[in-house]
Each structure stands twice: as C-alpha cells, then as structure tokens.
Design goal:
The protein contains 11 helices and no strands. The protein is an all-alpha fold. α5 runs parallel beside α7, α7 runs antiparallel to α8 and α8 runs antiparallel to α9. It is globular, with a radius of gyration of 16 Å.
Length: 189
C-alpha cells in the first residue's frame, strides 16, 4: 500500500506543476498507476520477497525516486525520467535487494523504450526479468515479460520472439490476482 501511495503522491506532485501537454496525459497517467487491489491479497503479500531491514530507509528513498520516475514518464517527461531512473538504478545496485533492483531496471528500460532506444531497453528488460526470476518476484517477472513482449514483438518487429514473451507473461499472470482485469488488458495491448 505504501508503494501505491508513493506512486499516487508523485503523480499528484507532477500534475500540480503541469503544463497543458501534461494535463492532456493525466487520464492515461492515472490509469497507469499500480492496482491497490493487490494489497488485499494475503497470499500474494506473503510471497513478496522481504527487503533487508538494514537498508529500510534507503529502500524507502529509492521507492520514492522510482515513483517519481513513473510520474515523470506518465506525464511525457522521458528525458528527465531517464536521468532519475539511471541514478536510482545505480543506487539500487548498491542496496542489492533483487525486487527493488528488478523494478529499477524495468523503469530504466521503459525510459529507453519511450525514447526509441530499443536495444538498450531489451537488454535492460532481460536483466530485470532474470533478476526477478532469481528472487521469485512474480509481479516483476510479469512486468518485465510484458514489456519485453512489447519492445521485442511490436517495436522491434520480432513477432515470434514477442509471442514467446507473451506466453511467459501469461504464465506469471496465472499466479497474480487480477480483479480489475488490468493484467489481462496489458497482455492484450
């Protein structure tokens, strides 16, 4: 729930300072927020890898920065988001908590993709996927596989590989609650 609150807070902070172009993307930005319904799934919450207690404050700060990356990206500020994502990813590497590291790699890859740097996006997404897989972080595996499906299959036009990533994402989707059908929609887009 704290992660969702950080995402909402960062987006509201961006929208308060918004120019007309940012306002036009507000509805999509709100739709891109992570689902709070995940917080109601006790089994899913029990499966989440626990963060190292010694790094709790640093992890909280990095989560806040990650939420800012998402807010910048959702409002079309991809260059700024890339700079912040790069810094956040570097810092997350030092914390060495795989779930956070996978999330920062994913955010960095999304900025590369948004800026048309598909090779960098693909390599970073694969890194995010395998880090998440090694940590049994199901949500992060799903997210990385969906992004790989899009970057590889659609943007890079390697359709057969994109379909394989779609199958991989569906495998992880079965283990995640989807009461609002948000994950199902992501697989169809």
């Amino acid at each position: 729930l704290e992660e969702r609150r950080l995402e909402l807070e960062a987006l509201v902070d961006r929208l308060v300072l918004a120019d007309p172009a940012t306002i036009s993307s507000a509805a999509n930005a709100v739709g891109d927020l992570g689902p709070a319904t995940d917080c109601l799934d006790p089994a899913g919450l029990a499966r989440l890898p626990a963060p190292p207690e010694a790094s709790a404050k640093q992890i909280g700060d990095l989560r806040r920065d990650l939420a800012r990356v998402h807010a910048l990206s959702a409002t079309g500020r991809h260059e700024e988001a890339l700079v912040l994502a790069t810094d956040t990813d570097r810092q997350a590497a030092r914390v060495n908590w795989p779930r956070l590291r996978s999330a920062t790699r994913l955010a960095l890859a999304q900025q590369h993709s948004a800026l048309g740097r598909y090779d960098e996006a693909e390599a970073t997404l694969e890194d995010a996927y395998f880090i998440a897989l090694g940590a049994a972080a199901t949500q992060e595996c799903f997210d990385a596989a969906v992004e790989l499906m899009h970057v590889v299959g659609h943007l890079s036009e390697r359709h057969a590989e994109g379909r394989r990533w779609a199958r991989t994402a569906r495998t992880f989707a079965h283990d995640l609650p989807d009461p609002t059908q948000q994950r199902t929609v992501r697989l169809l887009v």
